[in-house]
Write the structure tokens for this entry.
Amino acid sequence: MPDRSETYDRAVRRFLDLAAAPLRATHYSPRALAMSCGLPANSGYRATYAMESARLLRRDSAGAYLRGDLAGRIGLSALGIGELAVVALPVLEQLRRDTGLTALLGRQHEGGILVGPFAFGRGARFVVPHVQRLEVLRREPGPDLFEMRVLRNGPEDHWLLSHPIGPAAPGRLALVGLLGRSDLKAPQADRQAALATAVARFSQTLDPAAAAPEPSNGDPESAPKRW
Amino acid sequence: MTGSAALASAPAAAAAAGNIERIVRVLNCFGPDNAPLASGALVAGMGGSRATGYGLLRAMVRQGLLQRVDHGWLRLGPAAQTLGFVPLAAGYGERFSATTVAGLPARGRTAADPLGHEVAWNQHLVEIVDHSEFASPGPWRIAFANASLSNPWREALLRSLRYGVRVNGDMVSDLVIETADDDWRRQLGQIERLLADRPAALIVSAAPGDDGQLSDLLMHAIRDGTVVVAVDRRPREVDATLAFVSASGAVIGRTSALWLAERLAGRGRVWMLSGVQGASPAIRRQGSALEVFSDFPGIAIEAVTHTGWTGEGGYRAIEDLLDDIGTPPDAVWCDSGLQGVGAVEAFLARGLTPPMHTGGDLNRMYKLAIQHRIDFMAVDYPAAMGALAIETALTILRGGQVPRRIETPMQVILPRGQETASVKADAWAERHVRWELPDDAILSQGASLRPSAKTAEHVDARPL
């Protein structure tokens, strides 16, 4: 009987390749995406179609492939925080639309914030590939505005807004918005205020406690929030 | 037609799409808290035959999408965690697609990512482990089992580690250090003695050559409640440490080789000088460099040799190769400047112009490259990881969460005007070099290199 383990390994590799393809370059057709992974046009098309049907991949308004919301949910579930997936991506998307700035989720850690890989601009040189703890260098009075150290190819200091999510506890989550490198210019007051408002509002939306069923007295204002 | 015969004759395309749907179904089964699920249940929900189901599950475990937690129980693994990186806009990988180099793409990389960042950072980076069971009240006693002090980098690592203790002085009651002179058997005995004194944490930089006994000893120590952190070189088994503080040897090897190949326009003779034979960073750097060189058919690797990461080793290697081969090469690939300085000096001693070189770390390497206008690039292997190892051990002792593998950031250092299509400078060598510091200063040791305000001297100059 032939050894089929290579077939299964190839299928898993194909899955991971296709899921990673939108991170490497922009593709506007299933054929281009499949070919970028070295797949034959026919089987590549079907595999891409299967991934898109399952929401592992999606397309933006211009038709470019992106990772889909199911990929995000699986990733967050693998980290044990899958419950946030329902709202995290729409919230981050909305935050980005409202402010035009990079936003991401982090975990409070040792007085800093532990974040996964993220990108704060177009081009691979804007990718921060490492899981790292953002160190607080300076805290400004007023909203939760910090100057924090981001390690990319070398250390860079950035202004970030961070808002905790959920009850105070070690390792609690935080919604983070990036305002830009601190050596270039001070964050403009209006951008800062807009981001502060948006981050605070959206972090409330993400708060699991806000989703807990509460007794309603019929007043629409006191009805439990849906998320 | 039997079931297996029908499966074998099914069109490959349909099978591919079918398997992808099955993989998605499995990944979709797990709840938000990633609670383990029975493999039998996963197979039942997958559709298709049991043989296919179990075959796919095994492949998913092999490639990290799933993780075994007990016999027959699985949960989402580290490769699944990476799916959580969902950029909101397309096109952030575009920059590399414009800088495709002749000879690429190749294994482990794509045309859009010639440096292989995906390979370098996509695996296991988000495996964060909760160590609350190791929480204990401080201050703590820490032991350090060091592989050796055989070169300036290793001395800088120790300085950085001591610096980490100094800045966390109130949390560390005692630091005990043993050095094994790169002899793994000696290190085994030293670690047994260190563990007999019941330190709260043991930091290990593993001596090369271990046959697995070191891993067994460390796993036993972890079971007994000792926090074990590896720095720079890890033991053979990944599970023999709670965290590994290092920097990517693959990035050093790949970036330096790609720079050489591009500077040579894909054609030339290269001699490769590695560090300590059997040391894990040396293996990773050399393997990654060879992988890049293999994509350039015009690059001839004439020699691969080991130097023990010493200037004398580098000098001797070049002497021997010049005697054997006669004609100097077009380029010398060194995985560190520790041997690179010896290699450059060997060419100079014979009145030859040093060829293109790689290898940083050592201040003298930068001084030589700039003084003699050598075509040169370096990725400093950060000695600052010593202090990071102390911080990691203290975080675990406080019951915190840490990534299983902690990457210390690195910089690409180039003299001005020597960037290539794919390799750009993070810092210029002319600004990175420290003319006022001794030749053997290691520039990547972080804060431990800074002048001390109290003593007005460099920590670098303090006795070990």
In short: Residues 17 and 209 of chain A are 37 Å apart (CA to CA). Strands of chain A lie at 57-59, 65-67, 103-109, 112-115, 118-119, 127-128, 132-139, 145-151, 155-164, 173-181. The first strand of chain A starts at residue 57 and ends at 59. The two ends of chain A are 51 Å apart (CA to CA).
